[in-house]
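Example 3.
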Amino acid sequence: MYGLIGKMKAVPGQRDALISILLEGVSSMPGCLSYVVAQDPADTDAIWVTEVWDSQASHKASLSLPSVKDAISRGKPLIASFDKYIETVPVGGHGIKAAA
Amino acid sequence: MYGLIGKMKAVPGQRDALISILLEGVSSMPGCLSYVVAQDPADTDAIWVTEVWDSQASHKASLSLPSVKDAISRGKPLIASFDKYIETVPVGGHGIKAAA
């Protein structure tokens, strides 16, 4: 499996709008086993995204899906910065079996 | 919802043993919507744990479950340090609906 833990900051006041875009269509990405979007309670602009994929190739392929490309183009102007981008190797757990 | 993103370091050589303990019984914790254990590919001792709970109270209550208390007592000697403990507020996504 392939995992990502990312933290981004929205342009001030745009966190909710950015979260809505991030949550669109997350249930229909082939190979995506988990994709969770969370607010950072300590920073009103910050968003955490944690992802589990069956493979790094599936994650890469998702970036070419029309729905994802569209979301990226609409989300980009609302992103102020990427603060963290951590790759992981998930080995098991609960909630990662509902493969798309 | 209540989320946690944690990073811990195992005692050298004990990562796999610690991961096995962390994965025991994770599917039977009331209120736990997602619990993913991952290796850090950049650090042979490091483990990432990402959790989603229906509430902070459910997470707190889990620490009193006999199975969890037992796992903590067996896992503790294998942990060298806790490097990160980030609380989040998950707002949606994929893979968090398989509630226990």
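The interface with chain B takes residues 1, 3, 5, 19, 23, 26-27, 29, 32-42, 48, 50, 52, 86-98, 100 of chain A (CB under 8 Å). Chain A has one domain: 2-88.
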